[in-house]
Amino acid sequence: MTMTIAQVRLPEGLIQEVDKLVHKGLYINKSDVIRDALRKLILEKQIGSIPNTGDSVKEIREIRKKLSKGFTLKELDEINTLGK
After folding, report:
1. How many structural domains does the chain have?
2. What is the DSSP string of the chain?
3. Is residue 5 part of a domain?
4. pLDDT one-digit tens code per residue, 46-69
5. Which of 35, 37, 45, 24 has the alpha carbon at shortest distance from 69?
6. Reported pTM
7. Torsion of CA 67, 73, 78, 81, to 10 degrees
8. Cα–Cα dist 81/65, whole Å
9. Within 10 A of 47 (CB to CB), how many other CB atoms are there?
10. Does a structural domain hold residue 36?
11. Angle, in degrees to the nearest 10, between helices 73-80 and 56-67
12. Residue 3 within a domain
């Protein structure tokens, strides 16, 4: 999986909360916290947008699988248009 660096500026309060999660051992580092939060945000955005084809569990697993790896631009476009 190829990773790209994205710099973000966050308020000190958010950084402190992220540090707490790392300190508690829930995450290995800050990057893992932020990646997980973004995955959750993307997945929550998809709620209600998955067509009911009879196997929604399989469809959700596929989305989670995509979220856990790097995306191609085509895959990102596909994810961004799921609810449209």
Report:
1. 1
2. -----------HHHHHHHHHHHHTTSSSSHHHHHHHHHHHHHHHHTTTTS---S-HHHHHHHHHHHHTS---HHHHHHHHTTT-
3. no
4. 766 656 666 667 777 777 776 666
5. 35
6. 0.55
7. 110
8. 18
9. 9
10. yes
11. 140
12. no
Gap between the Cα atoms of 61 and 26, Å rounded: 23
* Distance from C-alpha of 57 to C-alpha of 3, rounded to nearest angstrom: 28
Residue 84 confidence (pLDDT): 46
Residue 39 carries which side chain, given as an amino acid letter?
R
Residues contacting residue 22 through CB under 8 Å, at least 6 positions apart:
28, 29, 30, 32, 33
Q: What is the pLDDT of residues 4-40, one digit of tens each?
A: 899 999 999 999 999 999 999 989 999 999 988 888 8
Structural domain boundaries enclosing 76? 12-80
Residues present in the chain in total: 84
Determine, yes or no, domain membership for 6.
no
pLDDT more than 90, % of the chain: 31
